[in-house]
Amino acid sequence: MRTPTILKSGWIQNRSPAERAALVDVAMGRRKADLVVKDAQVYNPYEGTFQRGDLAVAEGRVAALGSYSGETEIDAAGRYLIAGFIDSHVHIESSMASPLEFAKCVSAHGTTAVIADPHEIANVSGLDGLLWLLDASENLPISVYVMAPSCVPATPLEKGGATLGKSDIDRLMARERVLGLAEMMNFPGIVAADASVLDKLTEAPLADGHAPGLTGPALAAYIGAGISTDHECLSADEAREHLSLGQRLLLRQGTAARNLLDLLPAANAFNSRFCHLATDDRHAQDLVLDGSINHLVALAVRASETAESSILNMATLNPAEHYGLRDYGALTPGRIADMALYPDLYDFRPSLVWKAGRVVAENGRSTFSGRLADDSALRGTVKLGSLRAEDLAVRATGDKIRVIGVIPGQIVTDDLVMTTEAVDGFYRSDPDKDLSKLAVWDRYGGESAPAVGFIWGLGLKRGALASTVSHDSHNLIAAGVNDEDMLVCAKELARTGGGLALALNGRLLASLPLPLGGIMSDQPMAEIAAALDKLRSVGGELGFSHDFDPFMTLSFMSLPVIPNLKLTSRGLVDVAAFEYVPVVFD
Known about the structure:
Elements: E1 5-6, E2 12-13, H1 17-27, E3 33-44, E4 49-58, E5 61-66, E6 70-75, E7 80-83, E8 85-90, H2 99-107, E9 111-116, H3 119-136, E10 143-148, H4 166-173, E11 178-184, H5 187-191, H6 195-200, E12 207-209, H7 216-224, E13 229-230, H8 236-244, E14 248-252, H9 260-263, E15 275-278, H10 284-289, H11 293-303, H12 308-314, H13 317-322, E16 339-342, E17 352-355, E18 358-362, E19 365-366, E20 400-406, E21 413-419, E22 422-423, E23 426-427, E24 435-441, E25 451-456, E26 464-467, E27 476-480, H14 483-496, E28 499-504, E29 507-513, H15 525-539, H16 550-555, E30 565-568, E31 571-574, E32 579-580
Parallel strand pairs: 3-6, 3-7, 8-9, 9-10, 10-11, 11-12, 13-14, 14-15, 20-25
Antiparallel strand pairs: 1-2, 3-4, 4-5, 7-16, 16-17, 17-18, 18-19, 20-21, 22-23, 24-25, 24-27, 26-27, 26-28, 28-29, 30-31, 31-32
C-alpha cells in the first residue's frame, strides 16, 4: 500500500487509475480489501448516527461499509469507529515537544490531523524556524497543516527574535500544507483599517481570528475584513454574537485557557455545524494524561445537553469542511482511512488508531517511529545580558501601584490598583497579600535591564519561578517573592539555553531545559511530562496548589494582545489603551 500524496488544497489524490480501480473492485466485492474492521459501529457525520457493519479499506482509503473480507481483519466487536479527530487550532510548540513527539502522543489519543499555528517558533527564529517546523512535521502519524503567522511580533509593544513581513508570509503561502493566515491578533489594526495589516489578508484564502472581548461594530468590521474563526471568546453570549455574524467558533480547552464548557451553551441545533474544537496551548502533562481533542469531546459529551453527534462533528467534519480538507472528517467512500476505535462514548480513549489505513497507535501507545529533523538552527537562541539584583529594584514614588491580576482558568487579566508599603524606599513583594514581583528580560541580546512590575493571584508564597516560554515573543519571564531567587532561576535558564526553573532560599529546586528555541525539548514526550510533574510537585514548596499550572499561567503574563494588563520586556502595557503605563499609579 502506497502513501497518498498530500496536495496544498487538502485534497489527497489517488496516484493512479489502478488505485481508483482497487477502491471500486473492493466496494463491488471483486477483490479483498487491504483491511477490514469487522462488526464496527461506524459514525456517519452526515446522518449523525452510528451504522453497524464491516468497514473495508483499500490503498489507504475507505472503500465501503457492508459485509466484506480483507487481507487483514480486525474484529471491532461492536465498538465505535470514528474518523480521526482534527484539532482546529494548536501551537505544537506549547507541548514543549518536537513535532515528532507531539504527533506520536496526540495520535495515540485519536487526533490524526491538526491546523497548526507555528507563531511561537516564528517569534523566536523567524522564517528559519517556520521552515524547520514544516520539515519536522512531514511524514508523521498525523497530518500537520499550517497557518502562516500573521503577527510576528504580535505588537510593537514587545520585542522578539524576529519580524515577519508580507513577503515572508507570501513565501510561506506558496508552500504545501500552508492553508491560510494564522490568528490575526492585531484587531485594533484591522478596525482602524491599517493598510499594512489589511494587506496581509489579500492573498489569504482563509484567516483565523483572535479578538477577545470584541463586540458590536468593531466585531462586524473584523469579520468583514475576512476573519473566519475565533478561539478567544470568553462567554456564551460573546460566542453567540460571533456565530450570528457568520464567524466560526473554536471552543478551546488548553492548559491555562479553559473555555470549552463556558462556550458550549452557545451551540444549538442550527449553529453547531459552525463550531470546532481546539486545544490551542496544551502542556505535555495534559497531553500524556488526558489526551488531545478526545479529552474535549469527552468533557463536552459528559457536561452538556448538546447532541453527541454535534460534538463529534465539531471534532471531525466541521473543521475538515472549513479548512478545505475534503479527504478527512468522515469514514465515507473515497476518504482517507484516518480513524480510531473507541470502547465507549464516555472516556473516548481509543484502543486502535489508524493513519491512512495503517495502525499508528494501540491502547494509548504510539507504534510509530520516525526521524528527527535537523534542529541546529534553533539552538543557542537565549542571549541574555548581565543579570543584576539592582535591575529588579522598583523605587517607591507613591503608595499605589498597578498590578496584573490573575483570573483562574483564563489568560485575560485584571488591571488592579493596590496599596503596598515600601521598604527602604523600594516596593517589595508581599506574599501575605499574594503580591509577587514580575520581571521580563529581553533574551535576544538587546535590552539588558528587565522591565519590572507586580502580579497578584499567582499563589506564590516563597521563592521564585522563571520561564523562557512567554507568549508571544518568548522572552525570559520570572516571578518571585524575593529578588535573589528570581536571579537564581534566570541564571539557570541562561545556562540551559532556555526552559523552566524553580528556586527557593538561593538555590535551584528543579528545572526543565528547553534548548530548541528556548521553548521545546529534544527529549521524548514522556520525559518532558515527568519533568513537568516534578516541577509541579516541587512547586508545592512555593505555595502552588496541585491543580494549578503556574508556568502556563506565567507564560501569558507578557502577551500584550490579551486584556487587560501585561508586562513585556519594554514595560507594563494597558492592552485596552494599547500603550505603556507606569507601575506607580498616580
